[in-house]
Each structure stands twice: as structure tokens, then as C-alpha cells.
Write a structure and sequence with these properties.
Blueprint lengths: L2 H34 L3 H8 L2 H28 L3 H37 L5 H14 L2 H17 L4 H21 L9 H16 L2 H6 L13 H32 L5 H36 L3 H28 L1 H9 L6 H15 L2 H6 L3 H7 L4 H25 L1 H27 L4 H33 L3 H25 L3 H9 L8
Length: 521
């Protein structure tokens, strides 16, 4: 089996695990929607994640995504594992100590942060957001250990423990959310928050046996003078800056959304979760699977293989996400109705959630591609350029928020995110092509055009089908399931038939990803 086939198989496994995790995630969201609806309480819950997420990305996310895996992969590729473990120990120890200090400070300053973040909230919802934030602030320290463990295992091209961990994480949130939930008491939504903390612990613990099998070597040191540690710090700095500034975009979104109709932030959150489903299942899985290989190819200066890996990953993402994007746009109303419409979540909430979902879905492919392109820069140990481009795109997105929130309300906030992603994608393509000399543009364009043609035909037929059968099936839960399932099956069948006729290489790559053997000849 070739390196490319191994990467595709690894991506296929990660996709399956991510799919199960995302299904559990939607069970969680559906449970919360049924118990608490689209209200100020759910707005407070979603808002409570912003500060803990900021701390995590400030100290951990940038290190893992940009520096940790490339540097450790380089040590492994060059047969210097023991030195690699000294670097891992120093980085882990320093992150753990700094994060503990920041969490304590954040606990104290939470009321001021919430007041700044969502000034449009009522006093009751602000107090609830403060309470939930303080619970969730227990998560970053645990999640840091889990993330570092995942980074180590990914450097050894071991992916399954972290994938299983995400499934356990969502299962924990569902269990404790259901256990403590009481729709008559808004503070009982804290059961979901406690589930998040316990789920983070399970995510870490399930990875420990695999970590021991690769031969963990821990050193109780913090050595900022070690060349590997210095390299990780240098590579991480721009990513930390970007993620910190990116939280400003989240704050602007929350600030503008808090002044809209109550429940608007929840509608954005639910639709964002839906649109992130294909990005998380497919693009993120492919990105995680190819990143160690990209890092190894860059370390060994195999630039031809490096370019082929990037091209193959992006073409596969285009092939998968464009039909999903168009399909979700066409079927967005029955999709939201099936997943969320029950209990306190009514038909009006469904229509309100379908609005931002439409605008988010327009950017699925762009969001998916920018899960790959920055990793190409990171593998080349160039982290400043994607950060600069990301900041430019973020500034454009924030500007569009102020322009579009007036005419389109919460839909405008979603469209602004999509426009920012499209800008970031084109900037990344342009600069990477300049750096590498070429980016396999002809094959990428051919894949895009063929996929768009097949997806457009598919979308038109699915739209006709839904208009035909909806009067017969009705708009109830069962009827919507019938429309959604039949529309999806028809769309998938049409798309496969057309792309097979086009003889697209990406079709066989998708089969390989699913574990199917490609026919010779």
C-alpha cells in the first residue's frame, strides 16, 4: 500500500469516527433544543464557551496545529526520538503551568468578560452565562493534556485514540445533560456544561494506553533554551496571535447578535454546527491524516511528493464538499426540522435557523480547503504567512458583519463568515503557489468544474423532487424525514452516476477512503 493510500485510509477511519461523534453532537443539540428551545438560556450556554476556548487556543491550539506535530515529526523522521521527548516534556510542563494560572485569573474576571462580550443580554442571562463559563473553565487544562497526547500520537501516525475520545466526549455531554435537565429550571442547563468537563477527561484517558505503547518518555523539565522548544515557540507565536485575534471576531458576532431578537445567537450556533458537520467529518479528517506526512516530506525536502499530497487532499475535499454544500442548501429546512424541531423548539425556530444555515452552506468548500492549506505552510515551518492572510480575511469578515447585520440580521452575520472564508482561501492559494512555483492548478480547476456541474444537476433534481413530494409527505417529523432521506439518496445516486461518467480520479479516491479496493486498469 502506497503512502497516499495509507493517508486516504487513515482519513477514512477518522471520517467514520468523526461522523459518529457528530451524530452524537446533534443528539446533544437536539436534546438541548427540545428541553430549552431557542431562548436566552441557550444563548448563555453557547456564549459560555468563548472564554474557555480563548484560553485553550491561546496556549494549546496554536502549538498543536502549527508547531508541535511538524517539529516532533522531524525528530522522529531523523531518528532523534529521545530529543523529541525532551521537547515534548518541556512544552507540556510549561503549557500546564501557564494554563492553570490563566484559568484562575479567568475565573475571577469572568463577570467583566461577559459584560463586555454580550452587553445586550438581560441581567438573568448574564448571570447564567457567568455561572456556565466558570464551570467550563475547568475544561481547558484537561483538554490541553488531551490535545498534546493527540499531537504526539498523530506524529507517530496513530489516529484512532483521539477519534474514539471525541465520541466519548459527546456521549458524556448527552448523558449528564439529560441527567440534570429540567426545562422548568434554566440553571439545569449546567448539566451539559458538567458533561463537557467530564467528557474532556474521558477524551484524555482513552488515549493514555496508546501513549504508553509508543514508549512515552517524560522529563520533569522546562528548558526554553532547547533548540526544539525554541523552534516550537517561534512557530507557535503567530498562530497564538491569530487565534487570539480571531476571538475578537467571535466577540463582535456575539455583541451584534445579542442586540437582535432573543434566540438569534442560538439560531446562528445551531446552523453553524450543521454547516461544520461536513467540514469536521471530511476536511478536518483529511487535514489531520495528511499533516504528519506533509511534515515528514517537508523535513526530507521531498517537494514533488509534498505538492502531490496537497493537490490530492484538496481535490478530494472539493469532490466531497461541493455536492454536500448544494444538497444542504436545498434540504436545509427539513434538515433543521428533523434535528431540532420538537419540545420547546417550534416551526418558527426552524425557519429562523434555516436562514443563517443557507449562508453558511455557501462557504462549506472554502472552509474545508482552509483546513488543508495552512497546514502546508505549517509543515514547511512557515507560520507567519497563513496568520497574516488569516488576519486580513478576519478583518474583512468583521467589516462585512457591520454591513450585513442591518439588512440580513443574523443571516448577515453568517454570510460575513462565509465571505471571510472565501477571501482567506484565495489568498492562501495565491501565496502558496508563489512559494512553491506551482499548485497543480489545472487539475484543481478540472476537478472543481466537473464537480460543480455534477452537483448543480444533482441539486436541481433534488429540488424538483422535494417540491413534488412535500405536499404528499407533509411537514411533520416523519414527513420531513422522508423528504430528507429520499432527497439525499437521489442526490447521492445522481452525483455518483455523473462523476463516474466523467471518469473522475477523485471518485476512486473516495472509494479508497471507504476501504474499497480500486479496480486495476
Amino acid at each position: 500500500m502506497t503512502t497516499g493510500q495509507k493517508m486516504i485510509r487513515a482519513a477514512g477511519f477518522l471520517m467514520a469516527a468523526n461522523l459518529l461523534s457528530r451524530i452524537l453532537g446533534f443528539v446533544r443539540e437536539s436534546l438541548m433544543a427540545g428541553l430549552f428551545g431557542k431562548t436566552g438560556a441557550t444563548d448563555a450556554y453557547n456564549t459560555a464557551f468563548i472564554l474557555p476556548d480563548l484560553l485553550y487556543w491561546l496556549l494549546v491550539g496554536g502549538v498543536l496545529s502549527a508547531a508541535f506535530i511538524p517539529v516532533l515529526s522531524e525528530y522522529i523522521a531523523k531518528g532523534k526520538e529521545d530529543e523529541g521527548w525532551k521537547v515534548v516534556s518541556s512544552v507540556t510542563n510549561s503549557i500546564f503551568l501557564f494554563l492553570c494560572v490563566l484559568v484562575i485569573l479567568a475565573m475571577i474576571l469572568t463577570p467583566k468578560f461577559i459584560a463586555l462580550q454580550v452587553p445586550g443580554f438581560s441581567l438573568e442571562n448574564k448571570e447564567l452565562a457567568i455561572y456556565l463559563t466558570r464551570i467550563l473553565l475547568l475544561q481547558p487544562v484537561i483538554l490541553a493534556l488531551s490535545g498534546i497526547t493527540m499531537g504526539i500520537l498523530n506524529s507517530y501516525k496513530i489516529f484512532w485514540p483521539s477519534a474514539v475520545g471525541t465520541v466519548l466526549y459527546n456521549a458524556s455531554v448527552i448523558f449528564f445533560g439529560a441527567l440534570f435537565a429540567n426545562s422548568g429550571n434554566v440553571r439545569s442547563i449546567s448539566g451539559f456544561a458538567f458533561g463537557v468537563v467530564i467528557g474532556a477527561a474521558l477524551n484524555f484517558l482513552v488515549q493514555v494506553p496508546a501513549l504508553r505503547r509508543v514508549g512515552i518518555r517524560y522529563y520533569p523539565v522546562i528548558d526554553f533554551k532547547h533548540p526544539g522548544v525554541k523552534k516550537i515557540l517561534a512557530l507557535s507565536l503567530p498562530i497564538i496571535i491569530m487565534y487570539t485575534l480571531n476571538q475578537f471576531q467571535v466577540i463582535v458576532n456575539s455583541n451584534l447578535g445579542s442586540a437582535l431578537v432573543p434566540g438569534s445567537l442560538t439560531a446562528i450556533w445551531y446552523s453553524y454546527r450543521l454547516f461544520q458537520l461536513p467540514v469536521g467529518i471530511f476536511a478536518l479528517a483529511i487535514g489531520v491524516a495528511v499533516f504528519p506526512t506533509l511534515s515528514e516530506q517537508a523535513a526530507l525536502n521531498k517537494l514533488k511528493d509534498f505538492l502531490e499530497t496537497i493537490s490530492g487532499a484538496i481535490r478530494l475535499i472539493i469532490y466531497i464538499t461541493i455536492p454536500i454544500s448544494i444538497g444542504m442548501i436545498v434540504l436545509r429546512v427539513p434538515l433543521v426540522r428533523v434535528l431540532f424541531e420538537h419540545g420547546e423548539f417550534g416551526p418558527a425556530d426552524t425557519m429562523a435557523t434555516a436562514v443563517p444555515l443557507f449562508y453558511f452552506c455557501m462557504g462549506i468548500t472554502a472552509q474545508a480547503i482552509i483546513q488543508i492549506l495552512p497546514r502546508a505552510f505549517y509543515a514547511l515551518q512557515n507560520t507567519w504567512m497563513p496568520v497574516i492572510l488569516g488576519i486580513i480575511a478576519m478583518a474583512a469578515s468583521i467589516g462585512w458583519m457591520f454591513v450585513l447585520v442591518g439588512p440580513l440580521a443574523h443571516g448577515g452575520l453568517a454570510l460575513a463568515v462565509t465571505l471571510g472564508a472565501v477571501i482567506q482561501m484565495f489568498l492562501l492559494f495565491w501565496v502558496l503557489r508563489t512559494k512553491l512555483g506551482r499548485i497543480d492548478g489545472r487539475r484543481l480547476c478540472r476537478t472543481f468544474i466537473k464537480t460543480l456541474i455534477a452537483s448543480s444537476i444533482m441539486g436541481a433534481l433534488v429540488m424538483l423532487w422535494t417540491k413534488l413530494i412535500t405536499p404528499w409527505f407533509g411537514v411533520g417529523k416523519l414527513g420531513s424525514i422522508g423528504v430528507l432521506v429520499s432527497g439525499s439518496l437521489i442526490g447521492l445516486t445522481v452525483f455518483i452516476i455523473i462523476t463516474k461518467k466523467f471518469k473522475m480520479r477523485e471518485y476512486t479516491m473516495a472509494l479508497e477512503m471507504l476501504g474499497k479496493k480500486r479496480k486495476k486498469g
